[in-house]
């Protein structure tokens, strides 16, 4: 049983990543951002997930520096955006992100979307950053099995993590099985489907049984299914509420009932239809 917000999964290279983190998509107001990050760290979160395109790397870095938590205890993720992809461009984009965050290294660097014609070269740049010790782990976001297979075919190192849209209405069983087969951890963005499934009878019933909100039931389902999760919030109270899921456990039957809600329904873009303008959490 996962019993703490600081419990971890182990990536294929041995690096440990917390089972839950804070996503900061759209947190561009400096005060709100610092409040969210500070509240998360005070509550016990040890993973903060940002991206170049979120335009808040500098604020994230500042909030972490101003916290009482040592940098080495915090797992920081950021991502290379679509128009920065390609080998040389990615190396430059990484340096800019490192400067914005004002850090000596990044824990996890991801390709944000599989840009057609460039993501393999982008991955080769991530391999260099990893070999050079500038990042502790490398991975991808929004990659389907065929995108991952392209990397396997041409590169030396397999992605260690794949961050994708994942919630009870999009359980992605085939992708999940493929990633498990290749020792790639799945991580959930938009795990709460932007609040659009809280009235599901199964979730309401479990919410009443455990004295938890539907959101907390969903996030518990994430960790029960072996998925890292990064719910976002600008509210200190909601940040704490999202993290308060480690004092109960769903039964295997309850996990299966939630998984059975799958509709193959997205709130984000289809990774096979990505463009320079595509956005995601």
From TrEMBL:
Q: Where is this site: Lowers pKa of active site Tyr?
A: 79
| Annotated GO MF terms | oxidoreductase activity, acting on the CH-OH group of donors, NAD or NADP as acceptor
Q: Which SUPFAM superfamilies match?
A: NAD(P)-linked oxidoreductase
| Catalytic-site annotation from UniProt | 54
Domain (NADP-dependent oxidoreductase) ranges:
24-262
Residues recorded as binding substrate, renumbered to this chain, are 112
Which Pfam families would you find in this protein's record?
A: Aldo_ket_red
- Could you tell me the superkingdom of the organism this chain comes from? Bacteria
Q: Tell me which InterPro entries the record gives.
A: AKR (IPR020471), Aldo/ket_reductase_CS (IPR018170), NAD(P)_OxRdtase_dom_sf (IPR036812), NADP_OxRdtase_dom (IPR023210)
Name the UniProt key words of this record, in alphabetical order.
Answer: NADP, Oxidoreductase
Q: Which family does it belong to?
A: Belongs to the aldo/keto reductase family.
From the Swiss-Prot or TrEMBL record, give the protein name: Aldo/keto reductase
Q: Which organism is it from?
A: Lacicoccus qingdaonensis
